[in-house]
Amino acid sequence: MSLHPADPRIRVFDDNAGFYDRWFEENREEYAQELSFIRRHTPQASPSLEIGAGTGRFAAPLGMDVALEPSREMARLARCRDVEVVRGLAECVPFHTGTFSLVLMITVDCYLQDISRSFSEIRRVLSPEGFFVVAFIERKSPLGVYYTKTREKSRFLSLANFHTSGEISGYLIQAGFCLPVIYSLSQGFSVLVARPGR
Known about the structure:
The chain is of the alpha/beta class. The chain has one domain: Rossmann fold, CATH 3.40.50. It contains 8 helices and 7 strands; from the N terminus they run αααβαβαββαβααββ. It has helices at 8-15, 17-26, 28-41, 59-62, 72-79, 115-125, 142-149, 165-174; strands at 48-51, 66-68, 85-86, 100-106, 126-137, 181-184, 189-194. Strands 3-2-1-4-5-7-6 form a 7-stranded mixed β-sheet, with helices on both faces. The longest helix has 14 residues, at 28-41.
């Protein structure tokens, strides 16, 4: 599996990177709430990797050591925030086994071509004592239901397939993680914290 600019999951972010990034300026309260929630439930560990870091709006304030991002334009904006970015896909993480003590993924699950393969790759690059933190929109929550109903009107959401916490937990266990701990905000933004199984 390799990067290809014609992949619609990459092209939509290449073509709309600035539009995507402006959301954080126009929705500062929601962004601040999500950032605070993720920070509260993300263990302090290094070296750290964010999968699908976008324009670096989370990687920069959270102090992630390195970010993985498939979109050239999104990666360019992230580098403007002093985020070290490697271009690549979650389905084929370009790092050695056991490299990271923390892997973070924020609202990326819904865009993955192969979530099982992605989680297995993350398990591979995570150290035995490491943490995998998944932040996502719960499909059956008010926010998830709204996004699903309006997805065809959005250039980004039209490509998104949301998951339930049960589905995410199932994929994690299948990939070799222990049963995760789940934290949720009222509208359906959730964080799962998982550790590798023995």
